[in-house]
Amino acid sequence: MIDFWLAAGLLLLVALSFLLIPVLRGRRAQLEEDRTALNVALYQERVAELQTQQEEGVLNAAQMDTGRAEAARELLADTEGVAAPRVSRLGKPLPLLAAILVPVLGLGLYLHFGASDKVELTREFAQAPQSMEEMTLRLERAVAAQPDSAEGLYFLGRTYMAQDRPGDAAKMFERTVALAGRQPELLGQWAQAQYFADGKKWSDKVQGLTDEALKADPKEVTSLGLLGIAAFEGERYQEAIDYWNRLLAQLPPEDKSRAALQGGIARASEKLEAGGGKVAQAPVVKAALLKVTVDLAPELKAKVLPGDSVFIFARATSGPPAPLAAKRLTVADLPASVELGDADAMMPQLKLSNFPEVQLVARVSRAGQPTAGEWIGRSQPLASSTAAPQQLTIDSPDK
After folding, report:
1. Measured between alpha carbons, how far is 190 from 388 in angstroms, rounded to an integer?
2. Which residues is 325 bridged to in the sheet?
3. Phi/psi of residue 336, each to 5°?
4. Which among 237, 218, 236, 223 is positioned nearest to 192, based on CA atoms?
5. Which entry of 52, 113, 161, 347 is 20 to 30 Å from 95 by CA?
6. C-alpha dihedral sign at 98, 103, 104, 108
């Protein structure tokens, strides 16, 4: 903040200079007026001396006139170049008063309407925090400075959870949902914080939050994990195993939490068998594999170039707009037969087998952009488990 206040001080000096210059000029004018008055007094004194000498007979009339003319020339020479005094209706006290009030008023307005706290926070966040407590303090100050920032509230809630402060975290997630909307992942975080804030007691509020989250996204990981924990704590071990298996299917192979999750499933299985139960095997989801042959409509073959890119992908009819599986060819490769399956997933969570109904799309893009092109072909919705080969023709302008 030192550099900020230095810059503000320099600007203040510039502003004060506009106010103080007239005062200084006034002083200079006063000095000139004083000098002029002295010269006039000296002239009058000289003339009086000449008159006295004339009365005493020392000077005759001609000498008197010569002496008076000489004194007048000296007075004119001394006062030459002195400007006429300017009359100010405002007076001298007003600029001095303004010079005092300007910095005081400016500082008061800045402290009230300014953003010194946000400037300081920006400088602090540019440096890595030395402890979790320091990070928490920074986030709390950021939320206080920007109470309408959903991102700040969310990260503060996550930090509270890491510090075992679920009650505070639940309040932050509730405010985040109010600002950012009822997104499934936010509802899951809110439900989890509320569950631990209530002493691991399941409530209608937590149930409603998890139900809403999973209805919007059946693969919302926080809600699945929370339901598994609640089921395990309630000794409903088969439910815990089912929820955790669903969660495990969403995690990428390199995720570090997979080991802990598998350990939880193993403990739940042991407790279920120890109570005389039998672990129900999770249904095996068969990997989806769609076979499709892609070609150009005859009327388009003269309008494309051999090097134009062709993107072939499958996307969910009800779900995220991102492609579930994709392949890239060129116009020169057409007609071509390709296979789209779980192995071609763009993201581990977005597999063909996770969505019951999909649509096949093929796009010609001269610029090589998968999201925009010149020509396109679309299939009717079909089951992701379809085994019969599909035919897809690129025949329409891409709008």
Report:
1. 44
2. 314, 345
3. -145, 150
4. 223
5. 113
6. positive
Q: Is residue 130 part of a domain?
A: no
Q: Among the residues of 80-149, which ranges form H helices?
A: 93-113, 116-125, 132-145
With respect to residue 29, please indicate whether it lies within any of the assigned structural domains: yes
Q: What is the CA radius of gyration of the chain?
A: 44
215, 322: one domain:
no
Domain around 302: 289-397
Whether residues 163 and 190 fall in one domain? yes
Alpha carbon distances (Å) from 391 to 30, 80, 112, 345: 100, 106, 68, 21
**Residue 15 in tokens:** 């502003």
Tokens representing residue 337 in the block: 């037969």
- Torsion sign, CA atoms 313, 316, 317, 322: negative
Same domain flag for 59 and 91: yes
Q: Tens of pLDDT along 302-332?
A: 899 999 999 999 988 877 778 888 899 999 9
> Quick check: 357 pLDDT over 60?
yes
Q: Are residues 357 and 380 in the same domain?
A: yes
Q: What is the pLDDT of residues 114-170, one digit of tens each?
A: 555 555 545 554 555 567 787 788 888 888 888 888 988 999 999 999 999 999 999
Tell me the per-residue pLDDT of 100-116, one tens digit each, with 9 for 90 and over.
665 666 666 655 555 55
What's the domain count of the chain? 3
Last residue of a domain, one of 210, 239, 274: 274
Judge contact between 211 and 245, C-beta under 8 A.
no
- Return phi, psi of residue 31, to 5°: -65, -40
Residue 139 placed within a domain: no
What is d(CA 6, CA 11) in angstroms, rounded to the nearest whole number?
A: 9
231 pLDDT band, cuts 50/70/90, is very high
In order, the DSSP letters of 134-176 are HHHHHHHHHHHH-TT-HHHHHHHHHHHHHTT-HHHHHHHHHHH
